[in-house]
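User: Here's a protein and a ligand (NAP). What would the complex look like?
Assistant: Let me lay out the input and then the predicted complex.
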Amino acid sequence: MIQKIDGKTKVLGLIGNPVEHTISPSIHNILSYKLGMNYVYVPFCVNKGMLEKAIDGARALNIEGLNITVPYKEQVINNLIKVTPLARQIGAVNTLKLTSGGYIGYNTDADGLNASLVKNNIKLNKSSIVIIGAGGAAKAVGMLCAREKCKQITIINRTISKGEKLADNIRQYYDTEIKVIGLNKIYNISPFDIAIQTTPIGMSPQILDNPIIDDKFYNKFHTAVDLIYNPRKTQFLLKAEKNGLKILNGFEMLFYQGVKAYEIWNDIKISEEILEDVMINILNQYR
Ligand code: NAP
């Protein structure tokens, strides 16, 4: 899919560790191909202790755009000249854009999830949301739910203190009603609208795991979203589907967070037609 590499080709990339599993190169290289842009996107596995050197090196090489993934989304903030207000609220950066003074940090995870929910007609506004997990991804999810004026948020997490920390962080910016409960205390949860599963539980290769096995939980809401995209249907989504709920996996969130990053790097808005075409292409690659 990569166009001819020549003297004018510019490099984009992903910094993380590990990076072998990523499908971001497919998203960005197909986007460049379809848009006729002379870019190549490559993954960079950066070892512990080498992040600062990697960012300095990328700047020296004039790498115009980078994505940042686990475990560097928070740490990288120390190596940037500026961070957008949304990334500051979330406390994590997944996209860097080069400017003359250095890199600016953005977070496109929240907007990626939002685009995926809008496309699938899942409305956060005025909905009661349960967020399962309180890790890095949950921060973006929580801030998005509050920003979209959901009715109420309940954070379910194994470690209550981490759930409380996430709730306090959201309360700094929004007056949303937020409750926190332990993963072992969900049996008396009140009915709600949407559950968003943000833990890595059920991700390949541990595809038989599920953070919530109690069948009664799945009678309390109408829509189940899992941020995991491999497998396409986690045990959490399979159980939700069996109970007649609407389900959505994390593929489109991943796709749209990548698209948002590409739009930031190039200062463009990509048409729906091109996005549809690119998405079909990627789905065919991973079918
Ligand atoms: P993370 O920061 O490591 O999140 C850990 C969370 O999962 C914590 O709440 C942790 O609970 C909980 N957890 C982990 N193992 C557990 C277990 N065995 N039992 C109970 N709770 C457990 O990870 P992350 O960066 O947020 O990523 C989470 C998932 O989201 C990953 O699968 C990632 O691929 C996916 N994701 C997808 C997208 C997308 O675009 N689709 C974007 C970002 C992330 P404690 O607090 O108790 O430790």
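Summary: The mean pLDDT is 95.
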